[in-house]
Amino acid sequence: MITEELLMSEEKQLNTNVAKLVSDTALNDPATLDGIKNLIDKATPLVQAGRFNNIIDLLSIISDNIEFLDEAALEKTTKVGEEILALGWTAGNAVRMANAQTEALEKPPGLFQLISSLNDPDVRRSLHFFIGTMRIIGRQMKND
User: Fold this and answer.
1) For residues 42 and 35, what is the distance between their CA atoms, to the nearest angstrom?
2) Cα 111 to the chain's mean position, in Å?
3) Burial of 52 (0-12, 13-18, 19+ CB in 10 A)
């Protein structure tokens, strides 16, 4: 009997706390409530499987590393990230454009057409870039 009263008291307290939360202006917004429900739905399997703790641990590691980075290191890391994104965007666009040009061909270019494309300064520039990149990778592989 005492346990039932205790459970009912705890449930009543929980309902009171929920009512206080809902009375807050931010939680009166239906979009906010839908977002919270969606977050709870997505987090539930992570909590039940014990994987939510891994996410918290990962956030702690990231937070600790950011705390230890000085301003210069943080800016450098951010710049590297931006450069990687820019490279991915540029490479993706180049591949899409080259693919569209290749698909538009009725037949593949012949050997002499390929060789004559070396007259194009853009082709020579990109080949020089590619060869230089391969040279650097080869040098690094030799040093490893």
Assistant:
1) 11
2) 42
3) middle
Alpha-carbon distance 79 to 102, whole Å?
Answer: 34
Instruction: Burial-class residue 27 by CB neighbours within 10 Å (0-12, 13-18, 19+).
Output: middle
Q: pTM for the full model?
A: 0.41
Query: Which are the contacts of 22, defined by CB distance < 8 A and separation ≥ 6?
Result: 28
Measured between alpha carbons, how far is 137 from 22 in angstroms, rounded to an integer? 59
- Which candidate, 118, 120, 129, 137, places its Cα nearest to that of 91? 129
pLDDT tens digits along 16-61? 777 776 666 666 778 887 888 888 888 888 888 888 888 888 888 8
